Every structure is written in C-alpha cells, then in structure tokens.
C-alpha cells in the first residue's frame, strides 16, 4: 500500500512540475496562435497519441457512465481552460494564480458530498490551505503587480477552480469503473474536444497548420499536446485513482512554485525575498494538507 501511495505522490508531483512549466510554451505560442487554437490543437494531439497508445473504444458496462465521462470532459478539458483564459483577459495573472489555488478546497467539499466517503478533513487540512494561499499571495504579488480586484475576471477564475474540483471528483468516480486509465483519459478528451467546437466558432478558430512549419511553434505545441496533455492527464488521473481527489488536488499549490523556479532558470527572471518566503510557505501548506487528511474507512481498515 505504501509503495502504491508513493507512486501516486510521484505521479501527482511529476504532473504538477510539467504543468507548472507550460506557461513558457503557451507564452511562445500566443505570438502566432489564439488561446482557443492552442487549446484545441494540443488536445487533438493528445487524443491521437492516447489512441495510438491504447487503441480500441471503451465498452461501457452501463450507459449512464457515458454522462459521467461527458461531464468530466466538459469540466476538466473544456470549461476549465476556457474560463481560465477568458479570466486572464479581464484580471491580473497574479489574481488568477491565487484564485485557481482554491481548487483543493472545493474538491474537499465536493468529495464529501458526492463521493459518499464517510470521512472528514482535520483542522490541519484547512490550516494547510490557509498557509498555502498566504504563500501563493506573497509569490503572486511580490513584483510590480499589486492586488487589484476585477470582479468579472476574478469570478471567472473562481469558476475555473470550481469546475476543476468537479473534474477531480468525476475522475475519481470514473476510476472506479475498472477501465484503463489511458482509455478513460482519451474518452474524456473526446468529449472535451467536442464541447470546444462552439468556442472555436465563437472565437474564429483557424487551423493554420503552416504556422507549425516554424520549429519553435512545432516543438512547443508537441510539448503541450504530448507532455502536458496526453501524458500528464494520464498521470494526474492515475494519482487521483490512488490517492483520491482531495489528496491529489493539494498538489495544485505547487504550480506557482514551479512557475517561479522555471522563470528563474529559463527566463532568467529575478526572485524576490518575499517570493522565496512565499514559496516556502506554500510548500509548508502542502505538507500540512497532505499529511493530515484521513478518512474513517482508512482508519477502520487499519484496525
């Protein structure tokens, strides 16, 4: 059991490290692509790669499961990214970074309501959440940007955090169906891409594959499609299956830390003392939240 939990933690950590670096590729691609174009192309690439890795369609044992897959694709693949990208057009990136970090809190609440787990979170989970949020605020607002509320953008970012929590809970439910994690992820991707079609029309999507003739664009879109989408959604879903939705979701706290470290190493940006202290607090919040979450079922099995 310990080895299995260790694999779950490693999968979650790996996923977050990769996702924390995707801003660089996205920033490069935004010079030639619209956000919705990047989103659709990366997930189409991810879908194709997952199909090649595990060909064949899922034979569902219950047709009602299709609705759960559709909801997961809508929340985690379509709505989350669209809400986050639109939020960035109305509010500061620092605001979005802080607000998105509320996802573990929403995940904890939804898990208790919908996963039928007779469990509760200790005070340390909420203490860890508070410590992590303080740390993330210190990192986000340590530079030239100052806190400035933008209701429309901030509400959209909060909605993005909520739908990601929904995705985490739905993924946990799907993991109990007994299908392959790769096939589960691909099936969700398919629905996510389908739900993106209206957004593609609304935002004037154009394929423009000639833009991928530029090696820089090609390498970055492949990184987003193969690494951040196909591989990382599989490892994230695997972590959720092993650790549960709540314990996996708290790794989201690390994203700003990875982003800062990547900015220093790759973009040669400077890190302030406040940001460094914030990173430390964020990691401390993760440890508090991760180490003290327990469920009665687990305690009963131990007895």
TrEMBL record:
It is a multi-pass membrane protein. Coiled coil: none annotated. InterPro entries: AA-Vitamin_Transporters (IPR050638), EamA_dom (IPR000620), EmrE-like (IPR037185). Residues 7-140, 152-288 form the EamA domain. GO terms for cellular component: plasma membrane. Keywords: Cell membrane, Membrane, Transmembrane, Transmembrane helix. It is found in: Cell membrane. The chain crosses the membrane at residues 12-30, 36-53, 65-83, 89-111, 123-141, 153-170, 191-209, 221-243, 250-267, 273-289. Pfam families: EamA. PANTHER family: INNER MEMBRANE TRANSPORTER, S-ADENOSYLMETHIONINE_S-ADENOSYLHOMOCYSTEINE TRANSPORTER. Belongs to the EamA transporter family. This is Drug/metabolite transporter (DMT)-like permease. It comes from Faecalicatena orotica.
């Amino acid at each position: 059991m310990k080895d299995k939990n260790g694999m779950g933690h490693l999968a979650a950590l790996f996923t977050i490290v990769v996702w924390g670096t995707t801003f660089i590729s996205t920033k490069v691609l935004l010079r030639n692509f619209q956000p919705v174009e990047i989103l659709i192309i990366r997930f189409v690439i991810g879908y194709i790669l997952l199909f090649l890795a595990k060909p064949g369609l899922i034979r569902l044992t219950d047709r009602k499961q299709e609705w759960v897959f559709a909801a997961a694709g809508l929340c985690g693949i379509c709505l989350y990214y669209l809400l986050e990208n639109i939020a960035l057009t109305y509010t500061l990136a620092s605001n979005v970074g802080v607000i998105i970090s509320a996802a573990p809190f929403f995940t904890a609440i939804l898990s208790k309501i919908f996963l039928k787990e007779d469990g509760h979170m200790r005070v340390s989970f909420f203490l860890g959440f508070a410590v992590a949020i303080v740390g993330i605020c210190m990192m986000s607002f340590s530079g030239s940007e100052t806190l400035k509320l933008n209701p429309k953008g901030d509400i959209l970012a909060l909605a993005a955090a909520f739908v990601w929590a929904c995705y985490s809970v739905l993924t946990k439910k799907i993991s109990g169906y007994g299908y392959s994690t790769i096939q589960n992820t691909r099936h969700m991707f398919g629905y996510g891409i389908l739900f993106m079609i209206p957004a593609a029309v609304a935002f004037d999507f154009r394929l423009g594959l000639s833009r991928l003739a530029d090696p820089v664009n090609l390498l970055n879109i492949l990184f987003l499609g193969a690494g951040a989408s196909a591989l990382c959604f599989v490892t994230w879903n695997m972590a959720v299956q092993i650790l549960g939705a709540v314990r996996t979701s708290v790794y989201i706290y690390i994203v700003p830390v990875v982003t800062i470290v990547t900015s220093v190493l790759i973009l040669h940006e400077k890190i302030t003392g406040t940001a460094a202290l914030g990173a430390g607090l964020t990691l401390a919040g993760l440890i508090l939240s991760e180490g003290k979450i327990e469920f009665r079922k687990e305690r009963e099995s131990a007895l």
